[in-house]
């Protein structure tokens, strides 16, 4: 019963991957990692375990999104972002090994809280008139930050948005470009995660167990898109992300209450 309760939290977080990849509740992607860290942490697992479990699942979710948005992107953004992403991932995997579990929890929690703050203020940030022309001077630093934050918490969203939103792309092209960029980021991480034992046989077994929840979440996300407005739902997502981030920062892990 104790294992079931914490596994249920992790399963819900994985379901959120499918929901967000289907275009419903974009903020859910940032909530997934903190929730899984809390859930697996209640079983005594290090934060890196949750990060390793989630990456293959994110890659699976990317495949669904790529199929849906195929060709609806601005490919040129890859050449501006990916060089920085590759360097950021290398830096990130090396730093993870130097952090204690507690320090990594705090880092993931801070990223979750900053994500919510970014969502609340981004409309004011991008009020400047005129479309931004992407370039390496801005793209490489954004890619570098995206690579590091994605390695720590699969949380590259704000920095990728910081680069894409000022380009004033249409909604469909913006989402498709985001899907393309995230797909490349996640595939770049795979060999580095395997080489640094963030992805192991143990994490792959857990990923395989949760894999059916990805298409289920995509299907549910498509259905919810047709039936409900995102406005209220997103507010709930941001509140949960903020509270989960704060929980990781202050500790102790409240998910352990489910195991008592």
Helix and strand arrangement:
Blueprint: H1 2-21, H2 28-41, H3 47-68, H4 77-96, H5 101-125, H6 136-153, H7 157-164, H8 171-195, H9 201-210, H10 213-227, H11 230-250
What global shape is seen? globular
Which structural category do the helix and sheet elements fall into? mainly alpha
Number of helices: 11
Using the CA coordinates, give the radius of gyration. Answer: 17 Å
Helix content class: over 70%
Largest sheet: none
In whole angstroms, how far apart are the ends?
10 Å
List low-confidence stretches: none
pLDDT averaged residue by residue: 85
Number of domains: 1
Strand content: under 5%
What is the N-to-C order of secondary-structure elements (H for helix, E for strand)? HHHHHHHHHHH
**How many β-strand stretches?**
0
What would you say this structure looks like, in words?
With 260 residues, the protein is an all-alpha fold. 76% of the residues lie in helices and 0% in strands. The chain is built from eleven helices and no strands. The relative contact order is 0.22.
């Amino acid at each position: 019963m104790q294992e079931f309760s914490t596994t249920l939290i992790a399963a819900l977080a994985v379901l959120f991957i499918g929901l967000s990849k289907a275009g419903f509740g974009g903020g859910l992607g940032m909530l997934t990692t903190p929730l899984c860290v809390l859930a697996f942490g209640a079983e005594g697992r290090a934060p890196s375990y949750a990060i390793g479990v989630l990456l293959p699942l994110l890659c699976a979710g990317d495949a669904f999104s790529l199929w849906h948005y195929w060709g609806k992107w601005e490919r040129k953004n890859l050449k501006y972002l990916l060089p920085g992403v590759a360097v950021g991932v290398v830096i990130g995997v090396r730093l993870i090994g130097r952090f204690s579990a507690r320090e990594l929890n705090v880092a993931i929690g801070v990223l979750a809280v900053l994500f919510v703050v970014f969502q609340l203020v981004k409309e004011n940030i991008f009020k400047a008139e005129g479309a931004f022309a992407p370039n390496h001077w801005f793209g490489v630093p954004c890619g570098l930050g995206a690579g590091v934050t994605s390695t720590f918490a699969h949380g590259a969203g704000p920095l990728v948005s910081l680069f894409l939103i000022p380009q004033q792309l249409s909604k469909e092209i913006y989402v498709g470009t985001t899907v393309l960029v995230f797909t490349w980021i996640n595939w770049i991480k795979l060999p580095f995660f395997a080489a640094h034992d963030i992805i192991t046989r143990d994490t792959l077994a857990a990923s395989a167990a949760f894999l059916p929840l990805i298409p289920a979440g995509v299907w549910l996300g498509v259905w919810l898109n047709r039936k409900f407005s995102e406005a209220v739902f997103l507010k709930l997502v941001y509140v949960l992300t903020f509270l989960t981030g704060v929980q990781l920062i202050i500790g102790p892990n409240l998910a352990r209450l489910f195991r008592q």
